[in-house]
Each structure stands twice: as C-alpha cells, then as structure tokens.
Design goal:
The protein has 263 residues and is an alpha+beta fold. It has one domain: CNF1/YfiH-like putative cysteine hydrolases. It has 7 helices and 16 strands. A hairpin with a 2-residue loop joins strand 2 and strand 3. The longest helix is centred in the middle third of the chain and has 11 residues. The chain is globular and about 55 Å long.
Length: 263
C-alpha cells in the first residue's frame, strides 16, 4: 500500500485461509475474494472477485482493497489495446482490454467470464497493469504491450510479478484448430509445448489459454517463478464463477489491483 493510503476499516480482512498453493482467500465484511500470494508478498493490494459479488462494480469493490483510490476500467473489446489508467477515468469507458498505471492510488480493473484476468506489478517502481486476456488478446500480443508500457515506466522484465486469475482450463476449452494455431504462433517456439492438446472432434483441440499467456510472458523475459497461475477453472466451479462457455449468459466477475507508484 503506498504512502497516504489506508484500507477501508469496513473492508478489513477478518479471515485469511489458504487452500490453494500460492493463493489465499481473503475474508472481509463483504465476502471473500481471491489473492495471489506472489503479489500480496510484494505489497500490492489486489483481488480476484467471484460471482458472489454480483451487482457490485469496481466503484464499490475498490474500497475492499484500499480506501481512497481512483477507479479505472476499460470497455473491453477482446483486443490488444492497453491504455494509461488516466485515460480510463470515467464513463464513457474507452475501448481497450488493458490498463497500466501512470501514478499511484489508481485501482485498475478488468472483468471476464472464462478469459484470463492478468494482474502485473513492478515492485521497483510501484506501477501495475491489468489485462483481460482472451484468446484474441493473447494471440494479438496484449501481454507484451502491457510489459512494454511498464518498461517505459522504469520496470525491468525480470522484476515483474504476475498473477493469472481464474479462467477456463485447458481441459474445458474446446476450440477450432485455427484458433489454437493463432495463439500458438504468438508464443516463442521453444515454449509452445502443452498449450494445445488433442480433442476427439475433427478440426478441434483443447487450448490452455493460461499456459499460453504464461509462456508468452516468459518469452518476453519474465521469470517463471514470478508468474503465479490460479488452478481454479471458471467452467468447473459454478458456485464461484460465471462462465460464458458453461451457461451462455452475459455475466462477469471483476479483478483489480492498486498501483503503489508515487502520487
């Protein structure tokens, strides 16, 4: 938490329990959200919220992470555009699928219902980024764009820490071969193993989009041990997560991170 920021006392966690390796459920008066230990250990307030927070948007959710922060979110379009957070300060929200902080006290938000929420943080400068990474975003390089913008703010690739939140798992994500080909082509050839697997239906395969995102980040110079992948699958956990692939209903859960950079 950056200087001058305080956690809302009503949002003060009263319970933390770890049932997932490297991930912690944080309990507060509003409910539970998921936290990546890798980001939390570096002091970055963040949360991957579940469907049980339905009806509460980032204007409300931000207070559960840190009091007095500004709220920034894009109008997501399944692309690779990443904006400075200050360009996404209020409605109408600009079309993009990623945000990078340009000062401290900003909370950055993305939403999804099977696509991967990706939160990135630089412990050295305090800057952060949030990306909505579906297959189109990964294939078109949204994560590399976010890393490049963080580098422009003084980050080094090897220092970055990243959390890939709940998303559709490879076992549950059947796609056309042409989709997998586009995603795999965006990854370093030496890191492509395990991204796609066989499917019994001709012309289709199973795609592990989080594995692809992780491999892409490693290809951009990030250290594997500084990338945390949530083991939860949105399709397989109906009590916790909305899933477009499972329900064909337009509903999302939010994920956000607070930048620590100087105000």
């Amino acid at each position: 938490m950056s200087a001058g920021q305080e956690r809302d006392p009503l949002a003060q966690p009263d319970t933390r329990f770890n049932t997932l390796n490297g991930w912690t459920w944080v309990g507060c008066y509003g409910g539970y959200y998921l936290s990546a230990d890798l980001l939390q250990d570096q002091g970055f307030e963040h949360g991957f919220f579940t469907r049980r927070w339905q009806g509460r948007d980032p204007d409300v959710l931000a207070a559960y992470l840190s009091a007095g922060v500004s709220v920034h979110r894009p109008q997501q379009v399944h692309g690779s555009r990443v904006l400075e957070a200050s360009a996404a300060s209020g409605p109408p929200w600009p079309e993009a699928d990623g945000l990078v902080s340009d000062r401290g006290g900003q909370s950055l938000w993305v939403c999804g219902a099977d696509c991967t929420p990706v939160l990135l943080a630089d412990p050295d400068t305090g800057h952060a980024a949030a990306c909505h990474a579906g297959w189109r975003g990964v294939a078109s390089g949204i994560l590399g764009e976010a890393v490049a913008l963080l580098e422009q703010r003084g980050a080094s690739q090897s220092a970055l820490v990243v959390a890939l939140g709940p998303a559709v798992s490879g076992a549950c994500y059947q796609v056309e071969d042409s989709v997998a080909d586009q995603v795999i082509a965006s990854v370093d050839p030496n890191l492509q193993e395990g991204i796609a697997s066989d499917d019994p239906e001709p012309g289709r395969c199973r795609l592990d989009i989080r594995q692809a995102a992780r491999a892409q980040l490693i290809g951009h110079g990030l250290r594997p041990e500084r990338i945390s992948v949530c083991p939860l699958c949105t399709v397989s956990e109906p009590d916790l997560f909305h899933s477009w692939r499972r329900d064909q209903v337009k509903a999302v859960q939010w994920s956000g991170i607070v930048a620590q950079a100087p105000l």
